[in-house]
Amino acid sequence: MKKDLFITFEGLDGTGKSTQLRRVVQYLRKLGHRVRVTREPGGTRTGERVRDILLASRTGNLAPLAELALMYAARAQLLQQVIHPALARGEVVVSDRYNTASFAYQGYGRELGVAAVRAFDQVICGSTQPDLIIVLDLDPERARGRARGDSNRRLQLDRIEAAGLAFHKRVRAGYLALARRAPERIKVVNAEQSIGEIQRQIRALIDGLLSRRGK
Ligand code: TYD
After folding, report:
1. Which of 36, 81, 154, 204 could cross-link 86 (Cys pair, CB 3.0–4.6 Å)?
2. Any idea of the CA torsion for 173, 176, 181, 183, to the nearest 10 degrees?
């Protein structure tokens, strides 16, 4: 029986992704699973340095393909250092974003297309694909409003968050299109609902996955 599990959280900033992820991790640990939590871009010392380049406003205009390559550079490091070893130990890996973000943000948002992203993905991720991808879906204007909730955050919009509304609309549409293509793995949850209701739906998805795996 395959013991390891790989679950990723996706969606625009301001959809409540990190809150939901934290609760899911608590839930899985209560069920007795060993859980390794990580985030992208970043999650390793080198990956966090790459993240700084990707998100710092002073980076300015980055060629979309350079952005894509840096996302996958950080991911390659994370796979080797964290994800592969944890899965090999039979742990549950929960990541705040993974490769679906590159398809949505770079493939759709930056309009590089799915084929360009897939080319990187085949080399770098290969068969290490998530078992379950939870997409928290919210209208980009609402998401932006939430991400900017407090005035401190407003001053700190990172380079990608600062991309316009049209970009974020393409990203959202991208996530939804990807989910339509792979409905068995990519599950869309409406992030307009209450925190409790969203969590309930996510746990139901995870329970379904666990019971299919016989755990
Ligand atoms: P995130 O850590 O979720 O941002 P925050 O710390 O503000 O919650 O992600 C950083 C940004 O990187 C986010 O705007 C999405 C973007 N991103 C991509 O464009 N492509 C990718 O492959 C990944 C992993 C993230």
Report:
1. 36
2. 180
Domain boundaries, the chain: 5-213
109-119 pLDDT, tens digit per residue, is 999 999 999 99
Ligand 1 contact, 121 CB (< 6 A): no
Which residue type does 188 have? V
Digit-coded pLDDT (tens) for 149-195: 655 555 678 999 889 999 999 999 999 999 999 999 999 999 999 99
The residue whose C-alpha atom lies closest to atom 2 belonging to ligand 1 is: 40
Task: Check if 160 has its Cβ closer than 6 Å to any atom of ligand 1.
Answer: yes
The model's pTM: 0.95
- At the top level of CATH, the class of 5-213 is alpha beta
pLDDT digits (tens, 9 = 90+) for 65-100: 999 999 999 999 999 999 999 999 999 999 999 999
Counting DSSP H helices and E strands in the chain, the numbers are: 10, 5
Q: Whose CA is nearest to atom 6 of ligand 1?
A: 13
